[in-house]
Amino acid sequence: MVNDDSPAFHPDLTRARFTPRTSATRGNRRLLRALTRIGRGRAPKHGERVDLGDGVTVRVHRPAATDARTRRPAILHLHGGGLIIGSATQGDPLCRRVADELGVVAASVDYRMPPEHPYPTPLEDCYAALRWLAAQPDVDPARIAVIGESAGGGLAASLGLLARDRGEVALAGQVLAYPMLDDRTDESAAAHPRMLRLWNGPSNRLGWGMYLGAGTAGPAATPLDAAALELAVPARRADLSGLPPTWIGVGTWDLFHDEDLEFARRLTEAGVPCELHVIPGAYHGFDAAEPKAAVSRDFVARQVEALRGMLGAR
């Protein structure tokens, strides 16, 4: 007998059953980091790679038809990887797409990562890239949006708060795809833990622990005091007012589902325009794992359209 209440993956996501429950672990983190950083030393096709110093680089994509005398909107992309793996090359397809479709300058930053570089280094690297982008002669500094997925979405949320606090660059919007926002989230937060894919509780503890300076001991062992912890973790921020319009997308079988919905609720209560897109039956990183699926194409298209509206792009 079939239980109609039993969980199921989205029908478009045909690989879900064969996708691992997590990716980065203590045992494979170093190998995955090496693999995900292949090609990061080369400039993107039809783009350029710019060295900002201190080991921080940005991969820059401009529209095919460009005029250096025209100031354009821009986006800054922050890659995912649980704060411990990945590289800016992951953003090449999206950055190329928005550059061509929206006529914007798109840049993705290779921020330094823990455990070698714990908080605040990754966030400060992203902020340095934001300031660099705002200073480019072909960029309108009043029309810059930030976009990120997973850990990159969490860093994008932190960057939005940091930019608000410092008042040097006023973001026009932020697009957060299944963002990693709360170090307190564990597998118990999942509606159906057995449905988790590509990121689970142990991996989340590993990523947050390294980011917060506790290494493999987990986030609860962080040496940061309460004030620093609030600055490091978006979900711990008491004041979310004054942030730019925000788009958040997450699947129902994502470990971050509940924390993302809660962040969206708090943004709305703080008076921040927030669009929330929840995908039934979608798992973490589904659009990257199954990019040709109709639900994945729709998910990315919604992000591009959100950027179009935020930036007033063509």
UniProtKB/TrEMBL annotation:
Annotated Alpha/beta hydrolase fold-3 domain residues: 75-286
InterPro entries with a match to the protein in the record: AB_hydrolase_3, AB_hydrolase_fold, GDXG_lipolytic_enzyme
MF GO annotations: hydrolase activity
SUPFAM superfamilies for the chain: alpha/beta-Hydrolases (SSF53474)
The keyword Electron transport belongs to this UniProt entry's keyword annotation: no
Entry keywords, A to Z: Hydrolase
Region (Disordered): 1-27
Protein name: Alpha/beta hydrolase
